[in-house]
Design a protein that fits this description.
Layout (H helix, E strand, L loop, with lengths): L2 H11 L4 E4 L5 E3 L3 H6 L5 E2 H23 L8 H20 L7 H17 L7 H8 L13 H34 L8 H45 L3 H37 L8
Antiparallel strand pairs: 1-2, 1-3
Length: 283
């Protein structure tokens, strides 16, 4: 394949199905990467949203089905699988969360399973589903939501909002701003030195606080984007080389997609545990 066609192939697979306002004021789907760029920040990545919402619904339906069919006798395969996942997540919450909250375990389970399902889409051959949509008239279709930074940063910013809300709810606005931000990490018994250190503490702790959601979202996006890029590059090779490389990479990538879901979940637990630090409040 020529360099030019290879470049176009890669760009095509990395372009989202975007909906927004065209420069002429009309609304519609972008038919090229340049049209999508012209729509600006407010455009919607329809494919990322549709696949992420659909996979979230799939998660809810599977776990609801398992709950309705749950039995105290010999469990079925789905019940066994769900119980293993729930026990695994519950053990991580018990080990990593030191406060008391009824929200953390369900949230952690949702985060782990939802991200795992979105990552799992990366194992579907890169041309299969996009080609089916292309035949039906849809030009672009990215099926791995976690290769879109809008999705990963959206999830991490949601976790960030929970950190702020829980910190203020548990410690109070003054306790959060003064105790967590103004008097850490540097403190001093002398009141005048303490006052001088407050601006330094505010700058350092604010940067640290903002870095949490950014690093959480970009870590997931970067790893999944790199994995998708490797699959796309493998797809450019002759078919007999594709199978030689894609199968081992897919097997290895199973570990990657699971690990990334696990890391996101664990960091969510750790960050929320810090919000409840030195408090024992039941919600």
């Amino acid at each position: 394949m020529a360099a030019g066609s290879s470049s176009e192939y890669i760009k095509h697979h990395l372009t989202n199905l975007a909906f927004g306002q065209h420069p002429d004021g009309s609304w519609g789907f972008a038919h090229s990467a340049s049209e999508a760029a012209a729509m600006g920040f407010m455009k919607i990545h329809v494919d990322s949203l549709a696949w992420s919402i659909g996979l979230g619904i799939l998660f809810l339906l599977l776990f609801r089905m398992a709950a309705k069919r749950a039995t105290s006798g010999v469990p079925g395969g789905l019940q066994n699988f769900v119980e293993v996942v729930v026990e695994f997540v519950d053990s991580q919450v018990r080990d990593g969360f030191h406060g008391r909250s009824k929200m953390i375990a369900p949230l952690s389970l949702t985060v782990f399973c939802w991200i795992f399902l979105m990552n799992l889409m990366d194992l579907i051959p890169v041309d299969w589903i996009p080609h089916l949509f292309y035949l039906s008239g849809v030009e672009y279709m990215k099926i791995v939501p976690t290769t879109d930074p809008n999705i990963t940063l959206g999830m991490s910013l949601s976790v960030f909002a929970l950190i702020i809300i829980c910190s203020i709810k548990v410690k109070g606005l003054g306790g959060f701003v003064i105790g967590d931000l103004a008097l850490h990490p540097f403190n001093h018994p002398n009141i005048f030195v303490k006052m001088l250190l407050i601006p330094v503490n505010l700058i350092l702790e604010t940067i640290n606080l903002i870095a949490k959601p950014i690093s959480l979202g970009l870590r997931l996006f970067g790893n999944m984007y790199a994995g998708e890029m490797i699959f796309i590059l493998i797809a450019l090779l002759p078919w007999f080389i594709q199978w030689t490389l894609s199968v081992p990479w897919a097997i290895f990538h199973i570990l990657v997609i699971t690990l990334q879901a696990f890391v996101f979940m664990v960091l969510t637990i750790v960050y929320l545990s810090a919000a409840y630090e030195d408090h024992d409040v039941d919600h």
